[in-house]
Task: structure prediction
Amino acid sequence: MATRKQRKKPVLVHWLGLIRWKNTIIALICVMVAFTLGDSPVPRAAKWIVYLVVATIFAGGNVLNDYIDYRSDAIAHPDRPIPSGGIKRKHALIVGIIFLSIGVLVSICGIGLYGPLPAIIAIFAALLLVFYDFVGGRIPFLGNFAVGLLGGMVFIFAGSVQGLTKGQIYGAGYAALFHLGREIVKDIADRQADEATGIRTLPSLIGDKNAARLASLALFLIIPLTIIPYFAGVLSVWYLGAVLLFVDLPILLLAWLMPLNITPRKAARYASDLKWVMVGGLVALFLGGISS
Result:
């Protein structure tokens, strides 16, 4: 019954789901926040290039990820576009490659505006995404580390266009640790489906409880990293208040609860809750950027 309902959806809805449009928008918000943490103005043309590069590379990576993971998604996420029959798998492969290619080509076209470094970062991010989708995602912890690195690179990429600042580096560290921890939690949620299709992730190797402890450690490390920018004089008291309320307190609660009695179903709920922590961190960084 669920599959029939999915097939009745418009094709555009399936494609929006395949590129994870909500997550793509959050990635673009990360770029906006990174710009507010910079010290120098960015030409409008360069800004639009950065937004386009992040959107296309991010979307392309998501599409290829679903292309690769269609077997496990058929068990864990049967309503997704490929396993539900909304989009043909071969079409997803073509579109994923097109998105990534556009992102790389556009980043190269922007060299005249911002120099070669941002283009190098964009190309590296695209290659890392391909590595993760086809190889790294099946190597315990390495895939999680790659996702964390990609999350932090959004801030580094935007910062490299205007001259990297301490605020952008702190933002990258926060994003990297957050995505590392959340990706481990997502692996716990999908462990049963991954194992059923022969994929061994970190929870399969060390167990759900130990994986939850490692995820909690990554999240706990965010707390000192969020406080340092205020005492170092990089970000304002407005940032400190927001980050304590919207990031540090929720992380203390979630990181303490997760290892106590973790199950795949609870991990899926924790992964969803952590999205709001990410949003809270972006709000705090934005307030710090506009008030510092």
Remarks:
- The domain at 165-292 is CATH 1.20.120 (Four Helix Bundle (Hemerythrin (Met), subunit A)).
